[in-house]
Structure formats: C-alpha cells, structure tokens
Amino acid sequence: MDQIPSRVIRFGKNPIYLPKFTITLLRTPKLSPYHAKFQVPLYFSKLDLRDYLYNAYNVRALSIRSVVQQQPVRDHVDAMRQFFRPESKKFMTIEMDKPFVWPAEPESWEPWGKSERAKRDQYAIDEAVGGDTVAIRKEALALREQAQALLEGRALVEEEEKKEGEQEQEKELGVEEVRKEDKVATKGDAQAALKAWKKSRTLKQIELDQSKGYKIRV
C-alpha cells in the first residue's frame, strides 16, 4: 500500500535580516492550545507569516485564517465635527502542530506599574478632551471645603485672640483697681494714724519772754 504523501510546504527564498514590521501575539484564552492569534500589518500575507514563524521561532503553521477588522468612525480631538475612520486592523489565526499554553497572569500588577500607567493614560485623555467634568467638580468641592475650613480656622483664631485680649484687659483693669484700692487703703491708714497721734499727744505751752501774748503748743 502506497504511503500517503505529507503536505508539501514551500517557503520563500528571500531572506530578511532586519524586519521593518511588527507582529503581536495576542492572548486568547477562549482558543485551544493549538491555535494562536496575531495582529499583523495590512500588507502581510499568510505566506509571510508562515515563513516568519518557521524561520524565526521554528513554529509550523498548518493552517492560517486572516480577517481585516474595520474600525468605527470617530471625530478628531483637535478639530470638532470632523469625522474620520482610523486605519483597519488585520488579524491572523494559525493552527500549530504543537500546543502552546500562556502562563498564568500575576495576582497583582503593582510591580509593573499597570495602575499608575492606566491613571496616567486616563489623565492624558481627560486633558486632551478638555478635562473630566466630574473630576473637576470634585476638585472644586474639595477646594471649597478646604477654603471653608481655613476661614473657620481663622475665625476661631480671631475669637481666641479677642478672648485673650479681653482677659488681658481684665487683668490690667484688675491690677489698676487693686493699685487704687491700695492707694486708698494707704491714705486711709495714714489718716487714721494721724488721728490716733493727735489723740495720744500731750499738750504743752511754752511762753516766750519777749513776745508776750503768744503761746506755742507742742
């Protein structure tokens, strides 16, 4: 019985040492391990992909399916009401003779800075469009709350300063009143001492020989 001849696959003979194209291997968890999907340039053909995979990675492509995905119409960012259609994308799915399984995704993307990159990209998009209105409103409300807090803090500080000034004035007034009372008390004590001295002193009369009729009370 004659053997069934194997499929004859012919490759191109034009070697390429410095390729100018980019081929992206896409992660497709819904496909089987024997299938792989690539994003290729629009001018790329099935023969080009088969030659590239075999010569670069020693991967045999048994069958290849290609599809060109048309992009939706969108408007310009800089020019309003001017619509255009972005360049279409071309995808190719190959069937391999050996299976390939993608490695498991990491639990956290923090070491690779995925969240920071996503925030930076979103910020760039918002700035290009003109800013996110919701984010701007949130920032405005936050600034308003901060301003109110500052004003309330200043008002509290002013009230405290007023209270301190009033307390100082009260202290000064109290000191002055005490001084006045001390002065009054000292005057009263002096007068009382003078009255007591007047009551307790002895009266003596001295008569002078020359000036008759004059007497001195001691």
Automatic annotation (TrEMBL):
This is Large ribosomal subunit protein uL23m. InterPro entries: Nucleotide-bd_a/b_plait_sf (IPR012677), Ribosomal_uL23-like (IPR013025), Ribosomal_uL23/eL15/eS24_sf (IPR012678). Residues 158-184 are annotated as: Disordered. Keywords: Ribonucleoprotein, Ribosomal protein. GO terms for cellular component: mitochondrial large ribosomal subunit. GO terms for molecular function: structural constituent of ribosome. One of its GO terms (biological process) is mitochondrial translation. Belongs to the universal ribosomal protein uL23 family. The lineage of its organism: Eukaryota, Fungi, Dikarya, Ascomycota, Pezizomycotina. It comes from Dendryphion nanum.
